[in-house]
């Protein structure tokens, strides 16, 4: 599991070491870790470090010093490097070391900005060391004009790769907000601990891949603000079938989704739930939707619309329900049933305070805005998207439910409990029906849950696991050619294989390795 801490907490953890005179040692550890990551990236992209062109964006603080020291090590390996100084001040020892190893220096002024941008775009790697964890308010002055740099992952072409030193400059280390111009990276090499701002909101998108360099402060940190599940954590949450199991003991999921206007949502949620491994799906909804589900998934049990909500271990309600009053009623009954219930899409409009953590709301930013306003908050969609970490916590506290806020980094908050951030997805999942499949995956995990564990933390972990599975499967489905899943834990591999066969009907079993 990956744990993240506010920048303020990391600075507090560093303070005892700094007061003991260990500042230079901490900087050298950080710089060496940054150098190793940059060297590995250069070797991967170019085949060698010798002859590579490196640009350092160096601010006045310690981040600038870290980047300059790292570039000095690259210079010693035969790279060429230029430092663009974004402030009248710079870390004197680091700059001296950079110059002594043959580095060039250019001070960023109005008249040098065009040349600086051209230099960056012609380089192999740009090291972003302008602002650190104490930076607030975004990039300013001439440095703000560097925000037009686009990392390689967001455009076509191979150069340059942008590596952020500790966090992308202009991102708030505590919240992930970007209150002004900011840089975006292919890779963020962060020191001592992953920063909360790399896991939420604009910061999660700006960070790219994240690598952690241990500088010896872990023992000074308290509990994390945000966590991220890895596949071994997810495997521990998945229930594998055992001898003697039958369809009922595997878990029965009730789905009250779809309408005559939006029938596909029910088909997608049902298919995802079955692929994820629930023992049975009981569907309640309009008869025309039942026919579609039977055509696509004949193993689903479609009941008459008058059947009450019984004989299930968990519920999914709301996807594609539209204005269907029967489906709205079923969503309200599911929330009141005491069973784990995934409440999505149109059913979120029926949410009221006083729910329990076993009810998991799955809004996107627009639905979250409507929910918050219905509960007395005053926020618009841009406000939610600017600071999703604050608002997902607020929604959980107001409703009493577990809240999964979908986005580039999907955030899950339990009332008064932990927050998880999962960012394994691909932009190709930004399509109609994607949320319906997530609801089905999450519903299946809840219906098959054999842990006997309850409480806010457990439901948040299960929701985070569903978000990760959904994102990873979407990323694999977007790939061409054979799909590699053999390195995943067995239970995760089984779920992933089922989903991929549903999402890639052209693929044969031999294509999923």
List key phrases describing it.
513 residues; alpha/beta; 9-stranded mixed beta sheet; 7-stranded parallel beta sheet; 17 helices; 19 strands; 39% helix; elongated
How would you describe this protein?
The chain has 513 residues and is α/β, with parallel strands linked by helices. The chain has 17 helices and 19 strands. It has helices at residues 7-19, 23-46, 62-76, 92-100, 113-121, 201-207, 231-237, 247-250, 264-276, 287-296, 325-336, 365-374, 381-386, 388-399, 434-447, 456-477, 490-503; strands at residues 2-5, 53-58, 80-85, 104-107, 125-129, 161-165, 187-191, 194-195, 209-213, 226-228, 252-256, 280-284, 301-303, 314-317, 341-343, 359-361, 402-405, 410-413, 419-422. The strands form 3 sheets. Strands 13-12-11-14-15-16-17-18-19 form a 9-stranded mixed beta sheet, sandwiched between helices. It has a 7-stranded parallel beta sheet with strand order 4-3-2-5-6-7-9, with helices on both faces. Helix 2 crosses helix 3, helix 12 crosses helix 14 (388-399) and helix 15 (434-447) packs across helix 16. The two termini are 25 Å apart.
